[in-house]
Predict the structure.
Amino acid sequence: MISVSELTKVYGQTLAVDHISFDVPEGQIVGFLGPNGAGKSTTLKILTCYLPPTSGGATIAGFNIFHQSEQVREKLGYLPENCPLYTEMKVEEYLDFRGRLRGMDRELRRKRIDYVIERCWLPSVRTKTIGHLSKGFRQRVGLADALLHNPPVLILDEPTVGLDPAQIRESRKLIKELGGDHTVMLSTHILPEVEAVCDRAIVIASGKIVAQGTPDELRQSRRMQARVLVECRAPAKELAVAMERVSGVREVEVISNGAKDSHYVTAALRPKEGYDVREEAARTVIQHGWPLREVRLESATLEEFFVQVTASQAMASGAGGEQ
Amino acid sequence: MRRSPVIARRELSSYFYSPIAYVVMVIFLFICGVLFFEDFQPGHVAAMRSLFEWMVFLLVFAIPVLSMGLMSQEWATGTIETLMTAPVEETDVIIGKFLGSLGFFLVLLAPTMIYVLMLVIYSPSFDFGPIFSGYLGIVLVGALFISIGLFCSSLTRSQVVAAVSAAAILFAITIVPMWLGQRTTLGWFLRGVADQMVFRRYTDFSRGVIDTGNLIFFLATTAVFLFLSVKALESRRWR
């Protein structure tokens, strides 16, 4: 439904988006994930035909974003960052204006406005002035506008920023429900959002795609293998040596628990593929007579993955800049 | 240009929510009233010529205030993004904004029709011709001024910058040439320039003369500034 190839955007001297390519099949919800300034919004602005790409191209619903911009925009619902709206208008009035702008006739407008107002939980503010609404309601008005013409593709730029936790949960639920009928691409720098909502994540850092896959795939990818944490009262060096001897351990890192708890140390074990080292590690500690406090499998989070890939990307580009 | 009326309608209605538009309206109409009653006395000619000519000066300051938000507000709040990602063209937006603003200008002008009515009542034999051409001229001047204001507004996200720069341009093409034109010792070049500018061309209308040359001057310059506004809006694509 969305197909991007070698998309590049240069602002003056800065390379904002660097030859990115990806595809989004119909009905999927894709999270576009990256730290601030990674090029997420720029990519989305290009996809919505607001900005032209410097090079490369993309098609949405089969239409080229550059040559068939008007058709693309007809197939597209877009919620920009910070959700800009005409604050002096009433909710219903605004949606009616947007409907007219899209050339919808009176009957269709009435039907669709009723539908989106219901869908985005707006009936209570239908005749209120947008300027008087809370951030959460405004965000929903923006979403209602994006849905108004029932577009096959929805592009949402940071749809949950500035909402309170309850509103975030509602918005995510709504977006999740929209998947299937619509192809959704949303950008975020919040990881749980991707895990909660998206079928697939595309991680972008410094304008490049650094990883993509389902949240599970990303979690299982090699860089973020789970660690086993063994906490016991033992001399750090001896513990490290002992743990390295445990079969299946690839790497050991001993972390001190700090001054407050100086007797205890934690050994972080990285097991080889397919090994569960917990039993043997525990046995080893006990054989040495060290008091064992905890053996724990650290569940790998997307967060850790995210920090790893984006940090390594930032370091690489930083080093590149110095040369 | 299919969607221009939609945008024009929204723009016009947004003026009625804006306090600054009412302020401009009140000041404009108050000064017009004072000027009219200066002239509206026994023994004076039953005409609105001096009022019309004063109006041009008022508009030099009034129009920039009315037009300053047209595009700059869209840039500043980011609504330009929702607007341009709907299936509309840059021309739709500029023409729509222009027509909406022109609509409000007509609303601003409408109450001055009362003066025409008073002339009719108190001086049944007066000449309608110059009144008609005067209004036609003032609408053309308004259209030109709005297109200049719209152009300035589409260059910046700051309404203040838009208003000040538009007022400066209007001042330079209206008041400066008029002041220059009053001086008898003037080189042929400056004299020629002064005669081509807004005020000299407008005075024909207020006298009751509809000259095709003047008509084309106003329509063409308006079109030029509308075209430049479209280009300014498109410029986000090559910046």
In short: The CA atoms of residues 91 and 141 of chain A lie 7 Å apart. Chain A touches chain B through 29 residues (CB under 8 Å). Chain A has eleven helices and 14 strands.
